Amino acid sequence: MSNFENLRIEQDDRGVAFLTLCRAEKHNAFNAALIGELRQAADRLASDASVRVVVLAGEGKSFCAGGDLAWMQEQAAKDRAGKIAETSELAYMLRDLDELPKPLIGRVHGPAYGGGVGMMAICDIVIAAETARFALTETKLGLIPATIGPYVVRRLGEGAARRVFMNARPFDAGEAKQLGLVSTITPAEEIDEAVERECNWFLKCAPGAVADAKDLCLHLARNPQQDHVAYSAGKLADRWETDEAKEGIGNFFSAKRA
């Protein structure tokens, strides 16, 4: 399923796809090529009906070290229009993965810095090794966590984000969970079992319903001024009419009668 140079996609027979960053020698840091391939991968995974769950992971010692320094130097040499164009690609990549119509589970086995924290923030669930370490390091370089900002602040909330957004302070998995960035902490040697448990919950559900539930969650959270009563009622009515709902409800009552 994979024909990329900087990442790999592998899918098992259950429909669990593993999206793995493969720049281990650079601690899976972003460059233009990786960003472009992640956009292509997100599009491919979104449109593939056989994919039920996506696990985002990294090769080597780190999950993701943020921006590749050589790539960042290239951006510094560009004019303002060039800088905006390149950073927009990063922003679109984050958006594409954030809105992926499949559950996205982050398998964070090692450090995540800068944009790596942003990648965690777009996951639905984040499983982190207890030895993993994190930091939003942009201000040390005279930059700001701008493109990842909407996702990090949304995930942590303003109060928690302000604790780590500006000072580049490292923090551990325990604090990351307290901040809301990490869902579950596990010993490093048990991380795959923890990811498997989360995958299995989704695999027991109707895939179309999972996708619609995620879409509803994003819509409700990001459109606070809308009439949610009318919107959610309409979405539920749509779901009632699907084959998944008819089959699921039918199976439930058949099991009760048995």
Protein described:
This protein has 258 residues and is of the alpha/beta class. It has 2 domains: 197 residues, Alpha-Beta Complex (2-enoyl-CoA Hydratase, Chain A, domain 1), CATH 3.90.226.10; 51 residues. Helix content is 50%, strand content 14%. The strands form 2 sheets. It has a 6-stranded mixed β-sheet with strand order 1-2-3-4-6-9, with helices on both faces. A 3-stranded mixed β-sheet has the order 5-7-8. Strand 1 and strand 2 form a beta hairpin. Helix 1 runs parallel beside helix 3, helix 5 crosses helix 6 and helix 9 runs antiparallel to helix 10. The radius of gyration is 19 Å and the shape is globular. 35% of the residues are buried. The mean pLDDT is 95.
CATH top level assignment of the largest domain: Alpha Beta
Radius of gyration: 19 Å
Number of domains: 2
- Considering DSSP H and I runs of 4 or more, what fraction of the residues is helical? 40-55%
- Give the strand order of the largest sheet, numbering strands 1, 2, ... along the chain: 1-2-3-4-6-9
CATH homologous superfamily designation of the largest domain: 2-enoyl-CoA Hydratase, Chain A, domain 1
Sheet with the most strands? 6 strands, mixed
* Strand elements, count: 9
Mean pLDDT level:
95
What order do the helices and strands follow?
A: EEHEHHEEHEEHHEHEHHHH
Strand content: 5-15%
Q: What's the end-to-end separation, in Å?
A: 42 Å
**Regions with pLDDT < 50 over 5+ consecutive residues?**
none
| CATH fold-level name of the largest domain | 2-enoyl-CoA Hydratase, Chain A, domain 1
CATH architecture of the largest domain: Alpha-Beta Complex
Number of helices: 11
Broad structural category:
alpha/beta
